[in-house]
Amino acid sequence: MQKRNHNFGSKFKLNWKIKDPNENVIKKNAFLYKISALVLFLFTILYSLTFLFIFIVANDKHLHVYFEYLNSLTKEGFIMPSFNDVWGTLISSLVFFGISLVLIFLYKPIVTSNSITLTKQSIYIKATATFLMVSFLLTSLSQYHYANYAAFIKLELATEANENFTAALKSVGPHLSFSWKTPSIVWWVLFVQIIILFSIILFLENAISRKENIVGIEKYIEYNLKTSKSFAGSKIIEKMNKFFKPTTRNISIWALVIVGLILLPNFIYTILISNSSTKMGALIQWSYNLPNLLKDFKGIDLLYANLLGDKYSLAYFALNSLPIIIIGITFSTTFFFLSIIVRSEKQISDNVFILQNVVLAFETLFLLILMLVIKFEVNNLANIWKTEGAKFEEGLRGLMQAKDFQEITTMFHWDAIQDVIRTNKIEWFSQNGIIAETIISFAFAGSTFTGIGIGLVKNIKIHRAFFKLQKEIEGDEEYAY
Prior knowledge:
Elements: H1 23-46, H2 48-58, H3 61-75, H4 83-105, H5 107-111, H6 118-159, H7 163-170, H8 183-208, H9 214-227, H10 235-243, H11 248-274, H12 279-293, H13 300-308, H14 316-320, H15 322-342, H16 350-399, H17 402-411, H18 414-423, H19 431-474
């Protein structure tokens, strides 16, 4: 690290050099180039599934037939993926991924630039993470649309309800050319990719993070706690202060504990609703996905209107897929705090630490609200199917041939719906249990995040006071490199 005076007139210039009079700088430069190459390789491997997906989409003959008939299907009332939904999002993903690779390739020249500061480094890393995140999200969105298309095509080939369309599909093959992931699996794969993505980004951050005077800060915090009015010489308070000492590491530990306890039950619940073979998954599938897929059968809209009334809407994505995405993003945010615990000697910007805590609190609150709405909705659906399910089954049999009914009910796990009709039970709490669960979750999250907020304020005040004293002793601000 090298101290430099402020030079506001200096222009940003990429630093490609490896050689330097200082041997340590040469080693650091070579190390950063190796890191850049390794990360480029890792992200290319992580993105390789997209290359396979591009091959599948480009060679799917049934997809070409589907696009030819899409206008007529839309006129019949189907709400199906368009060319832009599949190809547009995929091409956009490639563009964002290309930009991300360029940013990673420029990793060493940027972070060792003559005018780079810690703030600018942080902006660069976060910009790279954002481009990568958008790229993987767009790829998953394209795969999600393709998975919905595939489910529709499989249903059409199995039932032959639309004779002209089915004949055109069979002209290129009696079965779907490629079997791709289900919509839920698409988002679970993204969940894993997000975790790996953030892990690699933290690896990039760690390679350029400076060491912090942890011992000095710890002693300064302990001194402030002992001299504070609240201490008052009490041994009990002394022990509590040591346990709840408002250090960056302690606050990070508490943040992980809170989010872990909140995420776990909601993670389990999300697995259950995203699996169409479970009772809750089947309820969402039959209530919000099948109405769109079965429009070839005349009278299906009226049958669903009698069952669900105005609840028949396009909520399938929000109920089935959105929770996976939000849990994945929230879980990935915790990696920031985990990295602080693991690399406690590395310097963390106060502003960045505050922002990450605010983001985590917002994500946790949004997740709790989303899951509350979904849990009440699924319980409401269970009650509706309990009272109206038998009548719906009778009406559905009357709209189609026995062969088609057998194909559809087998493909979409009608047996799980029958179990709900028979027992009026699902794999989670009743409405009263959900209310109790929600009160406990919000009370726990609210009280603990309030405690974290208080600790954060104390931490920042002490931190800034310490650095003010340190600057007075050491002089000018350091550049990042």
